[in-house]
Amino acid sequence: MKLRNTILLAIFLVLGSFSSAFAETTLNSGDTAWMIVSTALVMMMTPAGLALFYGGMSRYKNLLNTTAMTFMSYCIASILWVIVGYTLSFGPDKGGIIGGLDYMFMNGITVSSLSGTIPTYVFALFQMTFAGITVALVLGAIVDRMKFSSWLMFTLLWVILVYSPVAHWVWGGGWMAKMGALDFAGGNVVHINAGVAGLVLTMMLGKRIGFGKETMFPSSIALTALGAALLWFGWFGFNAGSQLAADGLAGSAFMVTNTSAAMGAISWMLTEWFITKRPTLLGIASGVVAGLVSITPAAGFVDLKASLVIGAVAGILGFLCVSKLKHRLGYDDSLDAFGVHGMCGMWGAMATGIFANPAVNANGTGLLYGNPKQLVIQIVSILATAAFSAIGTWAVILITRVVTGGIRVERDSEIEGLDNSTHGERAFEIQI
């Protein structure tokens, strides 16, 4: 009897192991459906959410130019990604630095190819939307004064030379992944990368005419608020979708994302209200984005309590960077790409090393749960990303400057406004 039970148990374990292995290599329709939706959500974030968010903050004479540059960021990234970006990011690892060229033009990938439980085509498109929004985020630092042709060339070079290597380091099996750096949905890859690039670009481009001497009113705070709402909505695909499955961890990422965003808005509003005596809608919308940025690297590793802290700190930090740090250091980050995305992204990456809870995700244990080494790893990843992004962006700008004959618009065009001088259009036709 004991022998028979032992044999049955052995058969059961073998079949169970076989079933698990089989499940891991079989398409899951629920996961696939969720990832297609997540991809669509993240796609919407760039030509809709970010275009409105940035467009509303730009001056009325540059609203269309800002929107056009946002659109083209996504379009160029879409083409580059399927040609070479995907393989550089997720191709076979080459020394922990970059992916091989095996998948150029999606070579070797078919309708039957899987990445986990979803089609590789869906995975590749999901990752493409991240490349598109990352380079578009850089735009916020330099609206009102960069040549349209220069922006197109910058986008092309930056996606290949800066974004793809960092994506490989973190998500494609590169050295940061091997080191154990935690970045669930893009703290390093997206926000620190874009924020630092924006800072370098704005410093090399120079300040806007009249910066610090005249008030530069946003064209429409209402559009900015609508853009922030669309970003918030799309961010659920951004963060919860990064689990690549429709499961409990995706649900947890969904919850902490919403919580941090709401807490960021409240925290920014209260800080601004206390210091300036006015709770502005622009501040509330910016606080939402600050909270979203900060929770992004941590979304799949932290619990609800941590998300409240992460969002609260993000709102305060974002406001201080935008209202105090920028003016004290004197750089002209037009729409605060560095202040919100760069700085809050750094906070989020550090917070991941502090609050990562193994009860949420066994792959991450932070300082508060007995692993101080994780915080050290996170700091190393932040410094490395910032340094590479700064140097890489500097090199890309130098190349762009040569190819396009300078990167800044003529003085008269800047004064007139880029909507008319570059595109021959106006955002609004109002007749009285």
What secondary-structure arrangement, pairings included, does this model have?
Elements: H1 2-24, H2 29-57, H3 63-90, E1 93-94, E2 98-99, E3 114-115, E4 118-119, H4 120-138, H5 148-171, H6 175-179, H7 187-205, H8 221-240, H9 248-276, H10 281-295, H11 304-329, H12 337-355, H13 372-404, H14 411-416, H15 418-423
Helix pairs in contact: 2-3, 2-4, 2-8, 3-4, 3-5, 4-5, 4-7, 5-7, 5-13, 7-12, 7-13, 8-9, 8-10, 9-10, 9-11, 10-11, 10-12, 11-12, 12-13
Walkthrough of the structure:
Helix content is 70%, strand content 2%. The protein is built from 15 helices and 4 strands. The strands form 2 sheets. A two-stranded antiparallel sheet has the order 1-2. Strands 3-4 form a two-stranded antiparallel ribbon. Helix 5 packs antiparallel against helix 7 (187-205).
Task: Note the main attributes of this structure.
globular, 432 residues
Number of strands: 4
Q: So what's the overall shape?
A: globular
**End-to-end distance, in Å?**
95 Å
- Pick out the low-confidence regions: 6-23
- Largest sheet: spatial strand order: 1-2
Indicate the radius of gyration in whole angstroms.
Answer: 22 Å
Could you state the order of secondary-structure elements as H and E?
HHHEEEEHHHHHHHHHHHH
Kindly state the percentage of residues in helix.
55-70%
With helices defined by DSSP (H or I, 4 residues minimum), what is the helix count? 15
Overall mean pLDDT score? 94
